[in-house]
Write a structure and sequence with these properties.
- The chain has 568 residues and is mainly alpha-helical.
- It folds into two domains: 396 residues, Na+/H+ antiporter like fold; 125 residues, Rossmann fold.
- 69% of the residues lie in helices and 4% in strands.
- It contains 25 helices and six strands.
- Helix 19 links the parallel strand 1 and strand 2.
- The longest helix has 29 residues.
- It is globular, with a radius of gyration of 26 Å.
Length: 568
């Protein structure tokens, strides 16, 4: 078969298995890895030109890290992380530390050397941001309390993953059987060199490339050609022997240097389809190395490590979040998101193999653990609430501090009051009106910044997720006269509506929806009113037009809206 024919066959098989994985609610990379198992030298097709496909796969890795760097605008990343607060930092760092320590000793038990054990244990610490965000988005849980915390500690993991790539890429001249002290010295020197390159990329991002890209932005073709040439060129440069890093680090630094430009969204849109194609080839080539040596031995090791990731990682997160004072439901749902290893882990494995730090047995071990944990954890995350209900009594043992982190800053009214879910933007206006008319109310919000601001104003507020039964009890939802939810989450709204119709049928229920279809469903379920923000906004403009065809009334609306925005 010709090279073109083999490449076409790889794409067809990978695409077919990727679609099947998607239909089974699994990440497409699982299908790509299985495709590699089929076509690899130990599989069934045994392609002759697999080495050429591997070279193309390196382009995919360079572009993948380029896109990650492109999305890491330093100012935006800090602002986003600040919103998630200290829990994300403590949980992220704590989970990485304890998983690495435990994993290092477990891997050492299987007979791996210090360097290989470090690689594998680091791989066990990272969870897939892409997979978790997609699953939480499908569940409509991205804006829940545990979802916010999860996104926060995934950012921490991504930061440490980049550091790990910098450290390990600088160990290219280190022997596989090097001592622990030799590894530590090499890591320290790699850190110094990597820190200098990182600082240079941030400088270029802020001072040089915004002006260059703004000038090129007038031509989409010129912008695309410059961006991809810069990304692949710097990736190749970093892998040069006299620099001693890798294409992964070069791709990331290239993307980071372009991150502060206003055109970075355009660049990402152009490069994403090309990246997806070449990344597919990377996972195929990784899967092609899955079956090597003593498969029984690899399978035994992978089984134990998979159990460690599926059970040990969530347990570590639950313990940390319990010490921070979170309720068992919040801790448990957040912990399920770390029950798999990341695409970063697979990239680390490929890097270690290319640098000679890992053999094919270690790479196969990491890959097999990745397949098992990604498949199983996807179902854990999607059915987390059901699993929690089944384990609820036992999980209460983890509430060592009584869920103090989710308690209110002030006492809530006991009965015949208003429960306001969400006090930011639209909710803040409703809260101001309730205070103006002297209506007793309590706010429920999962944003720590909003809660902290309300506590300072002596507003009765509860920090937590309204879908949690204990939060509902603290807020007195079952005894309230009116419940107003400004959170446009169809799942949470439906859950709240069903509970109220069962426990408090006399309450007036006001919900918020994003689409007309969701609003109809809420009305059919018994909601008294459904807020449609875009519908209300359009109605306001329509009324302004009817009142004054010269649009002068828009000035009054502008002054009002600016007053509200500036007051925040």
């Amino acid at each position: 078969m010709t090279l073109f024919g083999e490449l076409a066959l790889v794409v067809v098989i990978a695409a077919a298995l990727g679609v099947i994985a998607h239909l089974l609610k699994q990440p497409t990379l699982v299908g790509y890895l299985l495709a590699g198992f089929i076509i690899g030298p130990y599989g069934y097709l045994k392609l002759v030109n697999l080495e050429i496909v591997q070279v193309l796969a390196e382009v995919g890795i360079a572009l993948l890290l380029f896109m990650i760097g492109l999305e890491m605008n330093p100012k935006m990343s800090f602002r986003e992380f600040r919103e998630f607060g200290k829990p994300a930092l403590y949980t992220g760092v704590g989970q990485i530390f304890f998983t690495f320590i435990a994993g290092f000793f477990i891997v050492g038990y299987f007979g791996f050397g210090a360097l290989a054990s470090a690689y594998i244990s680091i791989a066990l610490t990272f969870s897939s941001t892409v997979i978790v965000v997609r699953l939480l988005s499908e569940k409509k849980d991205l804006n829940s309390l545990y979802g916010k915390i999860v996104i926060g500690f995934l950012l921490v993991q991504d930061f440490f993953a980049i550091l790990a790539l910098i450290f390990l890429a600088g160990l290219s001249k280190l022997a596989v059987d090097a001592s622990v002290w030799g590894v530590m010295l090499a890591v320290f020197l790699s850190f110094l060199k990597g820190g200098a390159l990182l600082a240079a990329s941030i400088f270029l991002s802020r001072r040089v490339f915004p002006k260059v890209l703004d000038a090129l932005g007038r031509s989409q073709e010129a912008l695309f050609l410059f961006s991809i040439a810069w990304g692949l060129g710097l990736a190749a440069l970093m892998a040069a022997p006299w620099i001693g890093f890798s294409i992964e680090i070069g791709g990331f630094l290239a993307g980071l240097a372009l991150a502060s430009s206003i055109t970075h969204f355009q660049i990402a849109g152009h490069i994403k389809p090309i990246r997806d194609f070449f990344v597919m080839l990377f996972f195929v080539t990784l899967g092609a190395q899955l079956v090597v040596g003593n498969f029984v031995e690899i399978f035994y090791s992978a089984t134990l490590l998979s159990l460690f990731v599926l059970i040990g990682n969530p347990l570590i997160v639950m313990v940390i979040m319990s010490f921070l004072g979170y309720r068992s439901r919040t801790s448990f749902l957040a912990s399920l998101t770390v029950a798999q290893i990341s695409e970063f882990s697979l990239i680390l494995a490929a890097l270690g193999l290319r640098l000679g730090h890992l053999d094919e047995r270690a790479v196969s071990l990491i890959t097999l653990v990745g397949v098992v944990t990604i498949v199983v954890s996807s179902y854990f995350i999607m059915h987390g609430s059901v699993i929690y209900e089944f384990l609820k009594r036992g999980l209460k043992l983890f509430e060592w501090r009584g869920g103090i982190a989710e308690k209110s800053g002030d006492s809530a009214p006991h009965a015949n009051h208003v429960v306001l879910v969400g006090a930011h933007r639209m909710g803040s206006n409703i809260m101001a009106a309730l205070r103006a008319v002297g209506e007793p109310f309590v706010v429920v919000d999962f944003d720590p910044l909003v809660v902290g601001a309300l506590i300072k104003k002596s507003v009765p507020v509860i920090y937590g997720d309204i879908t949690d039964e204990e939060i509902q009890e603290l807020a007195g939802v079952g005894r309230a006269r009116v419940i107003i939810s400004t959170v446009p989450d169809a799942k949470d709204g439906a859950t709240l509506l069903a509970m109220l119709k069962r426990e408090n049928p006399r309450a007036i229920i006001v919900l918020t929806a994003e689409t007309e279809w969701e609003a109809k469903r809420f009305y059919e379920g018994g909601a008294d009113y459904v807020i449609l923000p875009h519908f209300v906004g359009g109605l306001q403009i329509a009324q302004a037009i009817k009142a004054d065809k010269s649009f002068d009334q828009l000035r009054a609306l502008k002054e009002h809206d600016l007053g509200v925005l500036l007051s925040d």
